[in-house]
Amino acid sequence: MDYKVFCLVAIALIVGSISSASVQAESTKEQCSVERLARVSCGYSGITPDECTKKGCCFDNTIYDAIWCFNPRVIPAEDQCSVGRLARVNCGYSGITPDECTKEGCCYDNTIQDAIWCFNPRVIPDC
């Protein structure tokens, strides 16, 4: 559980630094499908949908007690998902579908026998 919290904080910091750029592409629906408790604030109380999305953030006010302006979910790049069989850290559960796995920000690969299919992406340092 602590590892997932660490990953969420790391993702929030990465997305936060990306969203501070002056020009942002609009986040996709997939990137904005973030569970209520996993949302990391990207704005301030009373921010408008337009102000929020101009910052590169997601806006969803359909859930009463959730953060409405929040950082989009980072979808792992393909090279982050090239993780060897023994290095994979489980990110799902038995029977998870590829869509459910990637919605969690995880990688899905069922081509290696006796390996974890839904796993955490490899962290690639920026240095």
From TrEMBL:
Species classification: Eukaryota, Metazoa, Chordata, Craniata, Vertebrata
A Pfam family hit: Trefoil
SMART domains: PD
PANTHER family: GASTROINTESTINAL GROWTH FACTOR XP4-RELATED, INTESTINAL TREFOIL FACTOR-RELATED
Signal peptide start-end: 1-20
Domain P-type residue range list: 30-73, 79-122
Protein known as: P-type domain-containing protein
Keyword Signal in annotation: yes
